[in-house]
Amino acid sequence: MAISPRLKTSPCACGYFAVFIGLAGLVVGAIAGGLFAVWRVNRRRARPVA
After folding, report:
1. How many other β-carbons are positioned within 10 Å of the β-carbon of residue 47?
2. What are the φ and ψ backbone dihedral angles of 47, each rounded to 5 degrees?
């Protein structure tokens, strides 16, 4: 079976796509985690203990 030249570059492009998806997930997770932490701290502080 002959491999077409177009399919030869596919794994490389797929690898870059996976890396970009992973980095985007890290950025979105960091932003969401920061917002969740700020919301949680502000929610706890709004309720006086004593």
Report:
1. 6
2. -100, 110
CA angle 35, 28, 30 (to 5 degrees): 55
By three-state DSSP, how is residue 2 classified? coil
- Residue for token digits 């701290």? 41
Q: How far apart are CA 24 and CA 18, in angstroms?
A: 10
**Chain segment 3-27, per-residue pLDDT in tens:** 555 545 555 677 888 899 999 999 9
Higher-pLDDT residue of 9 and 37 is: 37
Rounded to two decimals, the pTM is: 0.54
